[in-house]
Amino acid sequence: MARRRTPRFDHRDDLLDARVAVELDLHGRRAAEAGKLVESFITTQARVRSGQVVRIITGRGRNSSAGSVLRPAVREVLRRLSGSLVAEFDRDADEGSFLVRLR
Fold first, then answer.
1. Which stretches of the chain score pLDDT less than 70?
2. Does residue 63 belong to any structural domain of this protein?
3. Structure pTM?
4. Counting CB atoms within 10 angstroms of each CB, which of 3, 9, 18, 80 has the fewest?
């Protein structure tokens, strides 16, 4: 009889302590381009990594005269996808990325 493996990811884990399955780095991207990349990334990853946590790296905006441009754009996409593809999301402890639990 085959032994059933215990999944490494437990949905009861706190989001900030969860193991990250894959990352998307948006450094150097413009806000409009980043929004499209995030939507495509989340759509794809929700299909192949359902229930897992992914990281979206935006940076802190220190090299931009206007501050963080990517963070608000990414937050907007994540809010729009909440419920359908995104179970929950939050800024990572370093504030330069988002952690996203996929549906």
1. 1-13, 62-67
2. yes
3. 0.82
4. 3
